[in-house]
């Protein structure tokens, strides 16, 4: 039953993407993932503003100033989410992860000012070449180990996520990439995906820190709670569409 639910979700997401729907499951996931994941990292846009950018291509002003980087992160996240759906059945690879980063950061004025490169692992100065090689090797080792299996349990996803977050291969945007990978791999493994809520940031970060020290239980429990939240929200949307 759960597998059928997930397959229906995937179908609705792909149909929504193809039709460029501005409501329903696809639009909700686009808006919610962009809002929550960016907010965890300090983005100041409200959910209403994120929704307006997605549905109308414009931003709703309020009494606070609006930062250019917040808009760039939001639109970049929309593009990355679409790329995730297009590559849903692809195995995790360095090229795939770099493509997600390119989608997310390609238009970032921050990257231009800092001299960093969208879609490339962290390398700021030539004297850091050896450190860049270490990052690449660590990512190779992580991905090769992960890809020894075709589908993954929640424990496997938690282990991969913790290890990826410890490497932090890019100069910026690492955690957004990590969280979109969680959604992708849940769907590919026919598990209920989840969106990590900014309101749960402290719990998430604490559990992630423990997972990086081989204590995976709290991160797995946290993921399970967010899965329950996700399933509840999706069921509400599906019931309205019926």
From TrEMBL:
Please name the SUPFAM superfamilies in this protein's record: Fic-like
- Record domain Fido: where: 92-225
Pfam families recorded: Fic
Record InterPro entries: Fido, Fido-like_dom_sf, Fido_containing
Q: Which PROSITE patterns match?
A: FIDO
What name does this protein carry?
Filamentation induced by cAMP protein
Task: Please report the organism this UniProt entry assigns to the protein.
Answer: Faecalicoccus pleomorphus
């Amino acid at each position: 039953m759960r597998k059928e639910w997930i397959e229906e979700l995937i179908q609705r997401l792909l149909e929504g993407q193809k039709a460029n729907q501005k409501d329903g499951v696809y639009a909700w996931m686009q808006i919610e993932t962009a809002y929550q994941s960016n907010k965890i990292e300090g983005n100041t846009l409200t959910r209403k503003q994120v929704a307006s950018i997605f549905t109308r291509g414009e931003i709703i002003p309020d009494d606070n100033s609006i930062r250019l980087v917040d808009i760039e992160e939001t639109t970049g996240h929309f593009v990355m989410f679409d790329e995730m759906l297009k590559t849903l059945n692809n195995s995790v690879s360095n090229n795939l992860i770099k493509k997600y980063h390119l989608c997310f950061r390609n238009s970032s004025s921050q990257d231009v000012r800092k001299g960093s490169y969208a879609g490339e692992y962290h390398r700021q100065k030539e004297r850091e070449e050896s450190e860049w090689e270490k990052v690449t090797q660590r990512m190779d080792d992580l991905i090769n180990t992960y890809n020894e299996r075709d589908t993954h349990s929640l424990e496997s996803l938690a282990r991969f996520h913790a290890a990826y977050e410890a490497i932090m291969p890019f100069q910026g945007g690492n955690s957004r990439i990590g969280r979109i990978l969680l959604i992708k791999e849940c769907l590919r493994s026919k598990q209920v995906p989840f969106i990590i809520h900014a309101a749960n940031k402290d719990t998430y970060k604490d559990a992630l820190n423990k997972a990086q020290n081989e204590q995976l239980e709290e991160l797995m429990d946290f993921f399970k709670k967010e899965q329950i939240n996700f399933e509840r929200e999706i069921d509400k949307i599906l019931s309205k569409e019926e």
